[in-house]
Amino acid sequence: MGDIIVLIISCIFVNNILLAQFLGNCPFLGTSKKLETALGMAMAVIFVLVMAGAITWIVQYFILDKFKLEYLQTIAFILVIASLVQFVEMFLKKSIPGLYAGLGIFLPLITTNCAVFGVCIINMKEGYGFLETLVSSFAYAAGFGLALILFAGVRERIILARVPKPLQDTSIGLITAGVLALAFMGFKGMV
Amino acid sequence: MAKTLTQEFTKGLWQEIPPFRLVLGLCPALGVTTTVQNGVGMGLATTFVLVCANLLVSVLRKVIPAKVRIACFIVVIATFVTLVGMLMQAFTYPLYGMLGIFIPLIVVNCIVLGRAEAFAYKNPVLPSIADGLGIGLGFTMALGALGAVREVIGTGCFTVPFGPTLTILSADWYTPFAFMVQAPGAFIGLGLMLCLMNLVPSK
Fold this sequence. Notes:
The complex is a heterodimer of chains A (about 190) and B (about 200).
Chain A: H1 2-14, H2 25-30, H3 35-64, H4 73-95, H5 97-103, H6 106-109, H7 114-126, H8 130-158, H9 170-185
Helix pairs in contact in A: 1-8, 3-4, 3-7, 3-8, 4-5, 7-8, 8-9
Chain B: H1 2-11, H2 26-31, H3 36-59, H4 69-91, H5 93-99, H6 110-120, H7 125-155, E1 157-159, E2 165-167, H8 183-199
Antiparallel strand pairs in B: 1-2
Helix pairs in contact in B: 1-7, 3-4, 3-6, 3-7, 4-5, 4-6, 6-7
């Protein structure tokens, strides 16, 4: 049990997927201009990442390893993720229209979110068991959401500030992210 | 013909240089640029994938149905990423070890998919290769530059790609500013470089 808690804390804070491992930065800068879109993206990532983590684990251990096809990992995983996203989108549209409307355009974007693909590969590299994979996928996604929502909050304030022209938009966004990453560095050595 | 080819090639080197003008492919740009060599190595691996994927997508552009094109692009790109991973494992193992997870992640690098969708799917083979080569080398330059800034400030050294490590700022009088080679330094370094690029007017 203790191991699981350590894993959760290390995935959310210490090895934060956005600010310490640099995965998923495109949506990080793209969808963080408003708190609302950041919230939608965070929910969509949590939802898809847990499912992708579970399915890629099954694919890795029951198909790729069994038939000695480890070298196909990249191709297999990206196809699994792409079709999973498509499937989730169709399922939600039909069964839970409310949630679908909420997640909306963020779902298809997740296919090319390297955080999802990256976490699946990290899970395999670390050799996690099935339960650990589920927990780490959820915790990484939660860390993604946390950083994204914090960042969106800061960015909403920046709009009101007078930023010098060459620094505007992405440039100041990156520097803000740097300051946030500095704050997250404080968690280092916690676990 | 020759002139347009040169244009397709050179636009990637300045006018549309990623990740500055085209803000895509940020993850590898931030993640691997702790040294010049890592940055350049990552850039060259991406270039290889870009050129090959552009070539194949362009050859197959009349065969691939528009509805499933994204899935087809992803399979093509994933194939070449697997290839480049194996090649690097065989010939440049230390670099492969340093870049680690970012090699398979080329598959979700938006630059590669973006060029396949925006350029190679609509253009003949030769311009597509020129486009891939230009954008790829532009990306390599940008990563090398960011790596150089971070490495020199952060450690005082400069690694010539695939060569020796030179000491630029002697440890006698320079205290390395380690912040630059850590995570926050990546964001702030890239942000400041973007700001410098914005100061230079683009044509």
